[in-house]
């Protein structure tokens, strides 16, 4: 197994397949909330490709909306989970950088992907070849300028907004973006961003929200929809091939 596949397997077992991670409920609620937006963008005749399985929430919510739904996943253990839980879904066992679809897609979902990979611009340039000329890349990444990161810097809990926390390392993050750096990477890769939005009003790190009720986490997601994207925990961009 290559070093990259071994790292994906580590993340899969230490995080995605680990029922003992205490803040999973927070992330799950945020992903469910994001699916409302994603669902509004998928048409019945679309071919959709999703990069990575994660917790499987996006796949479970969206795969029935499109004509064809494919998941590209590098961790063998998560590929097995997809095949077991979703036998009707196309699943490709491959690193993103090594895959090329047999036919172009209409919607390409890169949800919490670009913060993980070694070369995000090179990957985005490769992903552009997967899309129809009028297709869309939908990107979601953690936001460097999130309120909880700003508070952490003001309180001396971390030295800079882009400092990676132990949780970032647990899930394999290599960077955090703001809207400007995210869109700059996408433009360098040959995309033109045309819609931006933010998700989740997060004022504290997950570890300080473990006693928050699911209702409160959902309310913070709802409130996040009303605020400028730059304040949110996660930022999203729709982009089309330039």
TrEMBL record:
Q: What is its EC number?
A: 2.1.1.-
Q: What class of enzyme is it?
A: transferase
Q: Name one GO molecular function term.
A: methyltransferase activity
Q: Does the keyword Transferase apply?
A: yes
Provide the alphabetized UniProt keywords.
Answer: Methyltransferase, Transferase
Keyword Transferase (UniProt):
yes
The GO biological-process annotations, alphabetized, read as: methylation
Pfam families xref list: Methyltransf_23
| Name of this protein | Class I SAM-dependent methyltransferase
The species is Aquincola agrisoli
């Amino acid at each position: 197994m290559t070093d990259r596949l071994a790292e994906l397997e580590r993340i899969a077992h230490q995080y995605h397949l680990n029922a003992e991670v205490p803040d999973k409920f927070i992330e799950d609620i945020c992903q469910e909330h994001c699916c409302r937006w994603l669902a509004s963008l998928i048409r019945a005749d679309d071919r959709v490709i999703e990069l990575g399985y994660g917790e499987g929430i996006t796949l479970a919510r969206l795969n029935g909306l499109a004509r064809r739904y494919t998941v590209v996943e590098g961790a063998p253990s998560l590929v097995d989970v997809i095949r077991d839980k979703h036998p009707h879904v196309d699943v490709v066992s491959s690193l993103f950088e090594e895959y090329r679809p047999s036919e172009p897609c209409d919607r390409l979902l890169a949800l919490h992907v670009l913060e993980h990979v070694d070369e995000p611009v090179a990957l985005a340039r490769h992903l552009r070849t997967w899309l129809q000329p009028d297709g869309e890349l939908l990107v979601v990444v953690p936001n460097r300028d999130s309120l909880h990161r700003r508070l952490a810097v003001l309180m001396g809990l971390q030295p800079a907004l882009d400092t990676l926390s132990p949780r970032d390392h647990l899930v394999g993050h290599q960077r955090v973006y703001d809207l400007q750096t995210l869109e700059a990477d996408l433009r360098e890769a040959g995309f033109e961003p045309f819609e931006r939005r933010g998700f989740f009003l997060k004022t504290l790190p997950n570890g300080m929200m473990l006693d928050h009720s699911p209702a409160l986490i959902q309310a913070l997601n709802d409130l996040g929809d009303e605020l400028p994207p730059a304040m949110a925990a996660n930022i999203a961009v729709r982009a089309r091939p330039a």
